[in-house]
Amino acid sequence: MSAEPDGPEDRLRRFATIWSRAVFPVTSTSSTRPEFEERLLPVARLLSGALRARSFDADAGRAAGAALVEAHCTDPEALSRTLDCVDAYLVLYCGEDGDREDLRARSARLQHAMAAGFAQALRERTLAEQEAVARAALEAQGVVAQALHATEARFRAVFEGAAIGIGIADLEGNILQVNGALRRMFGLSEQALRSRKVQEWVHPDDAPQTWRLYDELVSGEREHYHLEKAFYRPDGTVLWTNLTVSLLRDADGDPQYQLALMEDTTERRLLNLRLRYEATHDALTGLPNRAFFFERLEKALGAGEGQRFGLCYLDLDGFKTVNDSLGHAAGDRLLVEVADRLQACATASGEMVARLGGDEFVALTTGPDTERTVDELAARIMNALLAPISVDGRELTVRGSIGVVEGPAGERSAAEVLRSADITMYRAKSAGGNRFELADPEADARAITRHGLTTALPTALDRGEFFIEYQPLVHLGDGSVRGAEALVRWLHPQHGVLSPDRFIPLAEHTGLIVPLGRWVLEQSVRQAREWRDRHGGEALGPLRINVNLSPCQLTHPGLVQDTVEILERAGMTPDALCLEVTESALIGADDDLLKPLRRLAEMGVDIALDDFGTGYSNLANLRRLPVSVLKLDRSFTQSMQRFPADPVDLKIVEGIVSLAHSLDLAVTVEGVETGAQAEQLRVLGCDTAQGWYYARPGPPERLHELALADATG
Fold it and tell me: Could you give the residue ranges of the DSSP H alpha helices within 146-260?
């Protein structure tokens, strides 16, 4: 077995070699096979470039098809072998490292363009031959009228030896002569052909102008016309031809005969139809593909006034599990069965089903009453998925989530409609799946905004759009400011100031929370250093900065190292920092997750358990967590806004505080809004508090003012 070519040029030449070996036997050329290969090499290079181009260029494929005709590859078998060769080897040898699925789709479109270019070039070549034959026929027919035997022999040789069908008729449509090629094309004898008039060769697929052009020709108003026309054969099959009809005049210039030249294009037309089908239909399921669906959707959206559309966007729930557990072959069989069931759901006029890719399908309905029919279509699809599907002897339960969009034609583009359907489908999936949801413009707007924020997040940090506000932590015993919690904000260019709940989940989802959290930690520690240097630690006391950690940051391997470096660069001791971790993030945490927190706690960094009381952690587990502060959720303080406070709530808080103190844990309370709440929490033994009663989150200068006022009394 020979080694595979090393470089792109070697691969290209290998492709040209395979191509030339396939096509050379059916090519009429005086060249040797190696010479023919050299002639195909530039064409192969053209196809290779078109395969990997940034945007698809159909002209390259058409040029390649025309080049085949120029190289004398005019036999239909040459085109068939060429397309087979391109389909099997172009992506393999010229695709390099591109996405195979995209390259295969590009190759299919190139094949379609090559067939079109081949057909056009062959047609032009045939027309040139036809004109030569027509001139010979004119000359020969004139000689017939003059009874010149030598010219008669020449005409008869051209007439009978031509590869295209030739027929001569008078101006009334009576067929006078036909050659052998025409008889073979129709499968009829000369007598059978001459027994029929030209006007009888009508076919339902005739172009509207066909017989108008014929009438103009026989009346002498035009000299010739050319078009594509179908004829019925005796066995009922259809013969497709490129038909050229010319008017023959006598010596005085008066119309006398009509001459028809026919090229059989049936096989070429069938090939084009097959390529068109493959380009517009999914290879696995046979359903229309994304490109075909977009054509139909754009047509539906461009319908006239009073027309509406309804679209169901289906994504199978848990399909990845089938692929992972049973293999992709089983997954493919499942998709084929689902496609068959969906096809059975869309049989009414104006309905279609397509596969967009993967396990995503779409159903379209059009007409004046889609507000009703689209709901019925979605219900039929859900019912079609109820019965289990048997794959490899297993009964698989299939469920799906559907996003439904309905509306009048002409108001939205195809891309906007599909985006709304996609958003709505994911809303159905988020609600538990196995259901369909109707599109909601407000929900779409929120989802689009979330997407916009997600895509803007990476550059927002580089552009300096984030800033930090600080909320003071106050000692309940003497009212002194003991520190502050750092709260990050996003100053968005369009949406203004965004609170953390608008973008922190997005940052966690995209992984940007790690660099963003590092930036917040660095800025907060630096600010704590500025407070200390600006006003002196003695006057203000040891102000501690509290910074929140997300669950993603806890698992990041650089957490401890980053924290140490930030503290060292700022010249701050570890006890100046408190890292807040939510209770839910530590529920069921194993030793690996707790290890970085333990290392930080051993260094002297305080660890606070945030939102305590909202999770389901066992209070006894507090002993194994490396925390030094419990931060009670604001739900506890909200219950104290009523007067008198619920005694049960007071007992719960008192018990938590007692337990915390017995474990040497300090207790901080959030959401303090009134003096009565603050006093009640002080009586219960809580250590520090924060809330609007003391101050809202604000710039660092405000915290300094509060701390300085407290220190100077």
Answer: 149-161, 180-186, 190-194, 210-218
